[in-house]
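Question: Send over one sample?
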Amino acid sequence: MQIRPENKHRYPLNWKKIVKRIKERTGNKCEWCGAENYAPHPITGANVILTVAHLDHTPENCNDENLKALCQRCHNSYDAKERARGVRIRRM
């Protein structure tokens, strides 16, 4: 997932290294559905781009147990409610 510009400062300077480590930890596969990075998704057929999700939606919390390597489908599904809340807030 792309980091919103206003949240970039919340991520650690070594975020790219953390992302690489989390993806390697999972063998470059989605931890929830098993979709392989850069391969066709087994359900949608779209090319998978593996992302790293913060389960508590807090970019500052980069503890391993808070980070999951997820395909876009799983990440978007997990973040849907939080994203909708953010949209409502930005519209106010």
In short: The longest strand covers residues 51-54. The chain has one domain: 13-91.
